[in-house]
Design a protein that fits this description.
This protein is of the alpha/beta class and about 325 residues long. Helices cover about 45% and strands about 15% of the residues. It has two domains: about 1-175, 3-Layer(aba) Sandwich (Rossmann fold), CATH 3.40.50; about 185-320, Rossmann fold (3-Layer(aba) Sandwich). Helix 7 (about 125) links the parallel strand 4 and strand 5. Helix 2 (about 10-15) runs antiparallel to helix 10 and helix 8 packs antiparallel against helix 9 (about 165-175).
């Protein structure tokens, strides 16, 4: 896990050198063809990457994007309208039937279908009209790391080309350097706090929320910690009842409009006795963990999860676990 996580910068650099004209062509297509509906199709870590891509599309282009409940196609056989629809699937393996079948269904109904997939020879790649390989290389760790980061980069490229924003695309080109720097962030304080933990809340908001979801999943997968992700806007509702003295919280306060509220939330939770780990950039004095930054706040979550992955691998070892052999899990999951 650690080796693959630390290799992400090189794989993103390789991805950025590939399919340049294909991404540009897709961007032109999306600008020229109106889509009344946009959907994402994914599971697990790939669904978190889809959430990030969807957020960029909604925030930067103003298009509403929803996550498709795949069972509507695979189990309920619902008669979904497919014309004037954009369906974006993200997958590492491209093998799961409940990701493949909806893409086939929508393409058959005239939708524009896009697959961001690591295995360019997979059934998902064959099912989609537009296949854009992630170029993460073979992934041996059960817990996806480099493929997740490559999925975030690919989603950002898609959004940037659709918007046709040269500045955003230029910042994407600089991602490999930011990722390299992120691998060197010192998050040892988090290991000290979380090594004895049995539960944790992971908090984000806005563009950082997909990273909170991914971090919570990795805590479960690699460290057997009962982790739940919440938006900073939701935690004062039902989740507040769980917080007692010493309850650990990891808060991702990346740059942007949501940051001030998340920093304030960290202070409030400390007053309630929670053991808060506030991850924020170096200019936030209240931080406990330093978040790396990129050329633009919209890309900061990619560097943030890179720093987290390095810590997560160390945390599993500190808890006496092997992150490469999580209990009851296999590399490829096929659900219908």
């Amino acid at each position: 896990m650690l080796k693959e996580a630390c290799s992400a910068a090189g794989h993103v650099a390789h991805q950025l050198a590939q399919e340049r004209e294909r991404y540009a062509e897709l961007g032109r297509r999306l600008r020229s063809v109106p889509h009344a509906t946009a959907l994402t199709v994914a599971r697990g870590s790939s669904d978190h990457a889809s959430g990030y891509c969807a957020y960029l599309i909604m925030a930067r282009l103003g298009r509403i994007v929803a996550s498709l409940p795949m069972s509507l196609v695979t189990l309920y056989r619902s008669p979904l309208a497919t014309r004037d629809t954009l369906a974006i699937a993200i997958s590492q393996s491209g093998q799961s039937p409940d990701v493949i079948e909806p893409i086939r269904y929508f393409r058959g109904g005239g939708a524009t279908t896009v697959a961001l997939v690591n295995d360019a020879a997979s059934p998902l790649a064959e099912a989609a009209e537009w296949t854009l390989p992630l170029h993460a290389g073979p992934e041996l760790s059960v817990a996806a790391t480099k493929s997740f980061i490559c999925s975030l980069a690919a989603g950002a490229r898609l959004a940037g080309q659709w918007q046709n924003d040269p500045d955003f695309l230029r910042h994407i080109e600089a991602l490999p350097e930011a990722l390299e720097q992120a691998t060197r962030c010192d998050w040892s304080r988090a290991i000290d706090v979380l090594a004895p933990a049995s539960r944790i809340m992971v908090v984000g908001r806005g563009i950082s929320f997909p990273v909170a979801l991914e971090a919570a999943l990795k805590f479960k997968e690699t460290s057997a910690i009962q982790a739940e992700a919440f938006s900073g806007a939701e935690i004062k509702h039902g989740p507040m009842a769980l917080i007692d003295e010493g309850y650990p919280l990891l808060i991702f306060a990346t740059r942007g409009p949501a940051q001030a509220g998340l920093v304030q939330l960290a202070g409030e939770m400390r007053q309630r006795g929670a053991d808060v780990l506030l991850a924020a950039p170096a200019d936030v004095p209240e931080r406990d963990l330093t978040l790396p930054v990129t050329g633009t706040p919209d890309l900061d979550p990619i560097a943030a999860i890179q720093a987290f992955y390095v810590m997560a691998a160390g945390l599993a070892a500190a808890r006496g676990l092997d992150p490469d052999k999580p209990r009851h899990l296999s590399k490829v999951t096929r659900t219908s």
